[in-house]
Amino acid sequence: MQDNGLLGCGLFLVYIAFFFITGTIAFNIVEPHSFIGILIFLVVWGIVQFLCQAVLAIIFSLLAR
Question: How many domains is the chain built from?
Answer without folding.
Answer: 1
